[in-house]
Structures are given as C-alpha cells and as structure tokens.
Amino acid sequence: YDYRGRQTRTRSGKLCQRWGTQNDPHNFTWTPDNYPGTGLVENYCRNPTNASTIWCMTSDASMRWEICYPVGVLQPACPEGYEITSQTMRDVLEYTSYILWGLGVLW
Asked: Where's the Kringle domain (predicted)?
C-alpha cells in the first residue's frame, strides 16, 4: 500500500510522531535512513512495512502506534455487518458516493 498523502492523525485522532524524531515519545527503527524510498517524511501516515494499510507512531506516550485512514479515501466501518445484503446495491451505493464526492469537489 503505497500512500503518499498528508494524513497526520490516526483513526482515533492521535497526532503522529515525526518519522525522524526519536524518544519523543517513542524510539523506533522506522526512520528515513533505514527505509529509504518509503516516504517517511514529516509526521505523515505511511506503510514502510507493507502492512494492509497506513499507520504511524503516535505522539501519545500511552499508545506506540496506530493505523490511519487515508485522507480522501472512504473507509466504511460497520462492525455489525452490512445493512444492505445485496452486493449489487452496495456497489451502486459505493459508486454513487464517489460521484457525489467528486461533484462536491467540483462545487
């Protein structure tokens, strides 16, 4: 997952720690020097380990790392499963949401 956006917060809203900063509050090996070409700049969420999504080290001393939702990417969270059981209808709703989002950007 090669994300190069500017998301700086985790899914729970924690601010990401800068990749080049150590001991503030966490020390880690995922640095620009150790992982060149992976986009470890500023405090942007990235995926230097080829995980299933982007993540970052947090600036919260009580939580070392957390996954992030990419800015501009829809991430539906439905822990109870799908309310709409038809895959076709879910596809229609997904494409409609992209169209509406695109129209909103143009507006």
From this structure: 1-78
